[in-house]
Amino acid sequence: MISVFDNKVECCGCSACKNICPTNAIKMSLDDEGFMYPEINQELCSNCGLCRKVCPMQNSDESEINIEVYGCKNKDVDEKLNSSSGGMFSIISRYILDNEGVVFGAAFDSKFRVEHLGIDAIHDLDRLRRSKYVQSDIGNTYKEVKEVLALGRKVLFSGTPCQIAGLKNYIKGKNENLYLIDVICHGVPSPQIFEKYLEYLSKNYGSKIKSINFCAKELSIKALKINFINGKVYLKNATEDYYYKAFSNNVMLRPSCYNCKHNNFRSCSDISLADYWGASERFENYQEKTEGVSLAIIKTTKGKELFELINDKMEFVETTLEHAIKGNPNITSPSMVNKNREAFFKDYENKVEIAKLLKKYTKVNPIKKILPKLKYELSKIRNN
Question: How many angstroms separate the CA atoms of 342 and 336, rounded?
Fold first, then answer.
């Protein structure tokens, strides 16, 4: 059986162990930082060892790698507007659903916690669209995927690289009806921090939340919009919102994320999706900051075949992996540990109010604020 991890770097929280346990001896429980880890009921454990075999942190699979890279934009303008980046995920999902398949991805539940679930109807697709910058709860979806595949139906499963690796280990072997898509991952923030932040905003706005969108394109490709039941709206750019800034500054990511074992094409996904940062530098009419452009990294023969089946629904241009990595280094490299991470979570455990906590650890050093201006002034002096 797996051990209770003293070194939490060795657990990505994918829940593969929970899903495969034949005696239901494993449940996922929150630690003091608000991340989920396996907790084992020793009385139920049969010592079968399946949990250790399925763990993607201890066992890696191998997959063919034959990389092609594209910048993509959904031709359906409304669908692109209501999606992350260029709306590539929606196109792939529609193909699976149109062929009587099931699509699994991350969605908000009724309390705006992020969970994985499966859908088999187009009208539910919007629940899975758009990025959710918090670790999702896999629940029992690995089991559900296996059950759907046993019926001979197609399945699209999207998630972080470690979640894809966990599912791959759980399913074992190849299945032509299973399509795996991972998102290029910056790292996953604590679900409990996110929950506390929403509680703070609800109290501040005097209302329960109606909807959340991390990709509110009416302001920016990266902007947090929260609609409240009382009609009020919270809308801030990623550079202004405290939660977004803490996420971007790597101060509240899961310990395993800083030493990711499943980036750099190790997740065994068929396609990797991301924002194509820098697309406008290379291609005319690909404005990633205003309209969004999807980066699609095709890695397997199955992924290539899927791309060819749906590419009439998009505008696309072939690009290079080197250029993609330049704008999105998390393709190959994990996020760096913020030197204040330990202090951040110590303050959190000491019940520092969430807004004050996030504000404290996202302050910009005054020197960093004036440095660009100083460089500009010096360059003018040198040029005179």
Answer: 14
